[in-house]
């Protein structure tokens, strides 16, 4: 249960990547995710791998934290690779495993798709490793800013994100508390016929909803008592600013992407 | 309830979704052994439907959008405490995106129609949207980037056991809605469940 409460995986090392503008980091990752699908030969993949590995080294985050970020997807990566080995039938037969032929094309395609996955997950996990959740919400607000013109409540969404960051651990704790309280009154969450156990959902979740909405109401009142009137004319404590290192990172990314796009096969 | 109240309530729903995604911690019967492996089931569609019903279609959708965005940026708030871009790259990412649509459609039916039993219709619409988007995304993901050619029918069949579970729980959500509305009245939470 206690490990449920660890929200976020920020590792403070104060590297150059940590100090970068979170908007620039998000933009780079967004376009990286798109452009990596254009890579189709050794050089273009090599360039994208170089960029991902280079950024990883620059973050100075210890290796075990990076490995931890990758654990949930290892299975997917290995699974797609193995599936490709047996399903794809291109190229010539390399060897046999348990009587099944393994084709050279299968090995190649499996490796390429796994590599692409690995790079995608690696670079995207760097964002949370080097950026605090508050910086991320600030960046989301700023990046979605243009949508304000279409009456999309950008400010409200960003505020919701920061409020929920604060209350996710609280609500997890609350669920634990209610579960214990109801168990002490004799509600059985673990044994009994299936119907009875489904019914146990009600004494667990009704109090949870009530307490969550009570908290919401109190918070709303407290915000209004302090003069919150929506996003109109609101100033910020932390201002985001694009500085030299952000421009350098962007230029670096653009050069590598352009090189990869030039060297890919167009036939 | 005013705009600030709706905003904070929507933010709380992100927390509730996190609880719903990992509910098998507290309700161990939802961790079902399938093929020698325990698969923890989630109650996310149940909570997404309730988001639509309780917050209304607009704020319900914003709230779910906020949940998806936060998860996308890497917070471990999805099932099994996962999060990040990898979840969306996997075959089940469409179910996560569909939560926005679930809350929208469930809330829309609840707010804009007036027939009896519309709560159940709303819950059912939510379930439908959930699986239509989820399975189509899964099929697309398999073909476009996972490179596994399965037929659309196979994708549906593989999700059938979960569909049965979610059908039960979406109907329970409709039933649960009345319970919560009653409890709100008793505990003086001024949240408006009658949609005026």
UniProtKB/TrEMBL annotation, chain A:
HAMAP family linked: EcfT
Keyword Cell membrane: yes
Subunit-level organization: Forms a stable energy-coupling factor (ECF) transporter complex composed of 2 membrane-embedded substrate-binding proteins (S component), 2 ATP-binding proteins (A component) and 2 transmembrane proteins (T component).
Known function: Transmembrane (T) component of an energy-coupling factor (ECF) ABC-transporter complex. Unlike classic ABC transporters this ECF transporter provides the energy necessary to transport a number of different substrates.
Subcellular location: Cell membrane
GO MF annotations, alphabetized: transmembrane transporter activity
Name the record gives this protein: Energy-coupling factor transporter transmembrane protein EcfT
From TrEMBL, chain B:
Residues spanning the membrane: 12-32, 38-55, 62-79, 85-107, 119-139, 159-178
Domain of life (superkingdom): Bacteria
InterPro entries linked to this entry: BioY
Assigned GO CC terms: plasma membrane
GO molecular function: biotin transmembrane transporter activity
Membrane topology: Multi-pass membrane protein
Compartments (UniProt record): Cell membrane
Coiled coil: none
Main location: membrane
UniProt keywords, alphabetically: Cell membrane, Membrane, Transmembrane, Transmembrane helix, Transport
Similarity field: Belongs to the BioY family.
Classification via PANTHER family: BIOTIN TRANSPORTER BIOY
Protein name per its UniProtKB record: Biotin transporter
Organism name: Terribacillus aidingensis
């Amino acid at each position: 249960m206690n490990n449920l409460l660890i929200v976020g995986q920020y590792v403070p090392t104060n590297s150059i990547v940590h100090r970068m503008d979170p908007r620039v980091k998000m933009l780079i990752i967004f376009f990286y995710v798109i452009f990596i699908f254009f890579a189709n030969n050794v050089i273009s993949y090599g360039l994208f791998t170089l960029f991902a590995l280079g950024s990883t080294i620059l973050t100075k985050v210890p290796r075990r934290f990076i490995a931890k970020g990758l654990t949930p997807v290892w299975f997917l990566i290995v699974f797609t690779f193995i599936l490709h080995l047996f399903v794809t039938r291109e190229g010539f037969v390399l060897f046999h495993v348990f009587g099944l032929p393994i084709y050279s094309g299968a090995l190649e395609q499996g490796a390429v798709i796994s590599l692409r996955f690995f790079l995608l997950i690696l670079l995207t996990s760097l964002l949370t490793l080097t950026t605090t959740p508050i910086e991320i919400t600030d960046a989301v607000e700023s990046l979605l800013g243009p949508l304000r013109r279409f009456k999309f409540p950008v400010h409200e969404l960003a505020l919701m994100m920061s409020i929920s960051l604060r209350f996710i651990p609280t609500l997890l704790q609350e669920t634990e508390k209610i579960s214990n309280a109801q168990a002490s009154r004799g509600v059985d969450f673990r044994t009994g016929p299936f119907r009875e156990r489904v019914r146990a959902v009600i004494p667990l979740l009704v109090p949870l909803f009530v307490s969550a909405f009570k908290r919401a109401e109190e918070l709303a009142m407290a915000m209004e008592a302090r003069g919150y009137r929506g996003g109109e004319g609101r100033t910020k404590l932390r201002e985001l600013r694009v500085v030299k290192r952000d421009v350098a990172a962007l230029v670096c990314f653009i050069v590598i992407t352009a090189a990869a796009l030039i060297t890919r096969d167009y036939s | 309830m005013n705009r600030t109240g709706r905003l904070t309530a929507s933010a709380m729903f992100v927390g509730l979704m996190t609880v719903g995604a990992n509910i098998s911690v507290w309700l161990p019967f939802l961790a079902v052994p399938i093929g020698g492996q325990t698969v923890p089931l989630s109650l996310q569609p149940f909570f997404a439907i309730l988001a639509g019903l309780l917050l209304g279609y607009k704020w319900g959708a914003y709230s779910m959008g906020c949940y998806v965005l936060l998860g996308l940026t890497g917070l471990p708030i999805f099932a099994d405490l996962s999060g990040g871009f990898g979840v969306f790259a996997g075959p089940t990412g469409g179910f996560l995106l569909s939560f926005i649509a679930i809350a929208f459609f469930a809330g829309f039916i609840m707010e804009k129609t007036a027939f009896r039993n519309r709560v159940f219709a709303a819950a059912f619409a939510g379930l439908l949207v959930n699986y239509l988007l989820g399975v189509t995304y899964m099929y697309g993901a398999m073909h476009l980037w996972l490179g596994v050619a399965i037929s659309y029918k196979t994708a549906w069949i593989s999700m059938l056991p979960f569909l049965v579970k979610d059908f039960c729980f979406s109907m329970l959500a409709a039933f649960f809605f009345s319970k919560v509305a009653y409890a709100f009245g008793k505990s003086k939470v001024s949240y408006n469940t009658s949609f005026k």
